[in-house]
Amino acid sequence: MKRLALSDEDAEARRLVISWMTKAGMEVRIDQIGNVYATRPGTDRTLPCVLMGSHIDTVPTGGAFDGTLGVLGAIEVVRTLNENHVTTLRDIEVGFFTEEEGVRFGTDMLGSAVTAGRITLDDAHALTDDDGHTVADELVRTGFDGPAHHRRPIPHAYIECHIEQGPILAGAGVEVGLVTGVQSISWQRLTVRGEAAHAGTTPIEYRHDAGLIAAEVIVKLRRMCDSGTYGALRATVGKITFGPGQTNVIPDTATLTIELRNPVDQQMSAAEEHLADVVRDLTARHGVQTTLDRMAKTAVVPFDEQVQKLIARTADDLGLDYAQAMSGAGHDAQEISAICPTAMIFVAGENNGISHTPKECSNPRA
Question: Fewer CB within 10 Å of terminal CB in the chain, N or C?
Answer without folding.
Answer: C
